[in-house]
Amino acid sequence: MKTHILSLAFAAALIATPAIAREYAAIPGPDFAKIVAGSDDYEIATSRLAMKRSHNAAVRNIAQHMIADHTHSSAVLKSVLVSENIDVAPARLDAEHQQKFDDLKATSAKNFDYQYLADQLAAHRQAIGLFQTYYRSGTDAGLRNFAGKTLPTLHHHEDMVNKQLMKMPHGW
Questions:
Q1: Which end of the chain has a smaller Cβ tally under 10 Å, C or N?
Q2: Which residues are CB-contacts of 29 (< 8 A; sequence separation ≥ 6)?
Q3: Do the beta carbons of residue 113 and residue 168 sit within 8 Å?
Q4: Domains of the chain in sequence order
């Protein structure tokens, strides 16, 4: 049953990838930066929550990686924005990310690790679509360079999370 559910989730993610690319096809640099900053904040917030709630060493290790890498990504993005003279409001969770965070926070202890990882996988697949699209067709050279340099880390996160998720009992 778990394999079937994960296979369906994987298939849905594959089907959604072209839609994600279309959604971001013509995104201006400041909008790209704002989405990335909000996404980084979400990854950091949910990973800090995982550090508090998870008792699984592998999940906590993933959360530590997420905090470190997305904190670094945020700092690099801020540096690019300054050098490119792009003004973007400080990041904070938008309504969608806040709702996802609140839902994760309300998840039972039994299901928390699985839900955290499932949320991370979805968020990273969406981020990969955004970064790939901006890297190919973005208009700001500094942000395109940032997108290209960040993609390997996002792919590493996706792989790391997916491998751990496949090992997890989902509890439902």
A1: N
A2: 84, 86, 138, 139, 140, 143
A3: yes
A4: 2-167 (1.20.1260.10)
pLDDT at 23: 56
On whether the CB atoms of residues 34 and 21 are closer than 8 A, the answer is: no
The dihedral over CA atoms of 118, 122, 123, 125, expressed in degrees to the nearest 10, equals 140
What amino acid occupies position 125?
R
Give residues with Cβ within 8 angstroms of 134, minimum separation 6: 24, 27, 32, 143, 144, 147
Cα torsion 95, 104, 160, 55: sign? positive
| CB of 35 closer than 8 Å to CB of 130 | yes
Q: In the chain, pLDDT over 70 holds for what percent of residues?
A: 83
Cβ-proximal residues to 66 (8 Å cutoff; 6+ apart), any chain? 43, 44, 46, 47, 120, 157
DSSP 91: P
Instruction: Give the pTM.
Output: 0.83
User: What kind and span of H or E run contains 116?
Assistant: helix 109-137
Token code pair at residue 27 = 């995104």
User: Residue 43 is encoded by which pair of tokens?
Assistant: 């990854």
